[in-house]
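User: Here's a structure from my thesis project, written as structure tokens. My advisor, Dr. K., wants to see whether a designed sequence matches the one we expressed. Can you design one independently, without my sequence as a hint?
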């Protein structure tokens, strides 16, 4: 349910597709914004065009840049994965647990178990 303070939809149930579609679109946009595809010769294809790779003065600076940028690059794919998990969880059909709990339509109703010697003794 949407929080009550949100105008127009406050207190109402949110349909799974109404949350799934914007989340996937946002994840795709984030993925394209923060992904650079190497094209060779130290150049990368980005949303902004082909850019040259920037050289670092030391391995420490390169490591720091990698540690800082990796979460941003993972933001889009993680958003898409979470949207898919949310949709699957919200649209899953409940498991048929009737058979394992003894309440299947073909099972005897509770209290209708046969008693020994009550007319169902084996015939000889």
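Assistant: Designed independently from the structure alone:
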């Amino acid at each position: 349910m949407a929080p009550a303070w949100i105008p127009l939809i406050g207190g109402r149930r949110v349909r799974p597709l109404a949350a799934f579609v914007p989340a996937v679109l946002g994840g795709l946009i984030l993925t394209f914004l923060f992904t650079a595809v190497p094209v060779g010769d130290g150049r990368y294809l980005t949303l902004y065009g082909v850019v040259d790779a920037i050289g670092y003065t030391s391995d420490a600076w390169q490591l720091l840049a990698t540690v800082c940028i990796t979460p941003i690059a993972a933001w889009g794919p993680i958003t898409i994965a979470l949207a898919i998990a949310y949709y699957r969880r919200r649209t899953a059909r409940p498991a048929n647990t009737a058979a394992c709990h003894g309440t299947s339509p073909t099972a005897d109703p509770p209290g209708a178990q046969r008693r020994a010697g009550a007319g169902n003794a084996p015939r000889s």
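When you compare it with your expressed construct, this may help: Strands lie at 37-40, 43-46, 49-52.
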